[in-house]
Design goal:
Layout lengths: L4 E6 L2 E6 L7 H4 L15 E2 L2 H11 L2 H5 L4 E9 L11 E5 L2 H11 L4 E2 L1 E3 L2 E3 L1 E9 L3
Antiparallel strand pairs: 1-2, 2-9, 3-6, 4-5, 4-9, 7-8
């Protein structure tokens, strides 16, 4: 299995799509026609890394930013063949604080992707997205 990682740093934020082998939550596993990353020929990628970084920056709870509280969140969701995050598929897999987990979850469906591909066709795919919130 070949793994790739796309990492973007913007305005004190780092974000990445990580290709990982994880046990998926039951709610996502039930969506059997969503492909695992290992099945894809082309991985989903951000339509605009800069726009994604701005979404994350805006979601950072202001009180946490002012207090210098940093943290990480891992989200898992399904990106549809259209490149949109499917409503209801977003799960917080891990979060250093509940507030950051909720903040990240609120923006996940707004992130736009170029969908994953198999044999040149766009497909639904499960994505694990780690986010890093870092105060400046």
């Amino acid at each position: 299995m070949t793994c790739s990682r796309s990492l973007v740093h913007c305005a004190g934020f780092a974000l990445a799509i990580a290709v990982t082998c994880v046990v998926t939550p039951a709610s996502l596993r039930a969506q059997s026609d969503a492909h695992e990353m290992s099945e894809l020929e082309t991985m989903p990628r951000f339509s605009s890394a800069a726009a994604t970084a701005r979404l994350i920056q805006r979601s950072y709870p202001e009180a946490m930013r002012r207090a210098g509280i940093n943290g990480t969140v891992q989200l898992e969701f399904v990106v549809g063949a259209s490149g949109k995050v499917e409503p209801g598929s977003v799960q917080v897999v891990a979060a250093s604080t509940p507030q950051l987990g909720e903040a990240a979850k609120t923006i996940a469906e707004k992130i736009e992707f170029t969908p994953g591909m198999i044999k040149g066709e766009p497909v639904r795919a499960r994505v694990l997205l780690p986010l890093v919130y870092k105060a400046q």
